[in-house]
Every structure is written in C-alpha cells, then in structure tokens.
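Bug #2210: token dump truncated for Ig-like domain-containing protein?
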Amino acid sequence: MLLHCLLLLFSTIVGVSSEDVIVQLANSVHALEGSNITLSCSYTGSAYSLHWYLKHPISKPEFLLLIVESTMYVTKAAPPYPRLSTKLNKTTKQVDLELTSAEVTDSALYYCALQPTGTGVGKLIFRKGN
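Reproduced locally. Full output below:
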C-alpha cells in the first residue's frame, strides 16, 4: 500500500497584550496517511479560551474548535470535524490539536489562537503564517 506524506503547517495568533502570547512548538509536521498527528502550542499570560483554525490555499481560515481554560469545555465547529480533538495542560500551558487517521486532504495551514481574559476578551489577532 502506498502511503502519502502529509505536510501540516501551523502558525500562531497572538493575543492583544504583550503578556498574552501563543506560539507553535514546531513549524511543520510530516506524517504518513492513516497516522495520528498532534500539533502543539504553548502560551503565556492568562487565557479565556484557546482556539484552532485551519486554512487551505485560496480560502479563508475555518474554525475547528476551542477549549475554555477554566472549565475545559470544548466547542466544536458546526458541523464538527469528527477526527479532531483538543487537549489542554494548564500546568505547562500547552494546548494540543489531535488528528486521527490523517488523510492527504488534511494538508493545510493550522493556526492556534489565544483569547485573553480581561480587556482582550473578544479579540484575536492573526499574524502572518509560516
């Protein structure tokens, strides 16, 4: 069986405060079709929620899911992406996007985002992707 290589790139979205920053832990991930993939971001400051988006070429970013830091409540896109889940470690301030059974069509630019608490609530600032 021929396995295709996937290139999953992801970038960051920075919060409005200089103390609220989220960064990716790898610039790109290569995986074989059918494998499970974890994309990770770490953040500083206080987060209300952490978000994941994807962007295919010549299209706008699509919301995938978010997790609320205080309650760990997850909101998924409608309709949801069934092979995606998220995990948050509040101690290490790391948020993961987990993709099961990767497909070639999953190749895209993935964004992690932080929605800060306080005056920054409701604001997400995009930074140029990698």
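Output looks complete on our side. The mean pLDDT is 80. Marking as cannot-reproduce; reopen if the truncation happens again.
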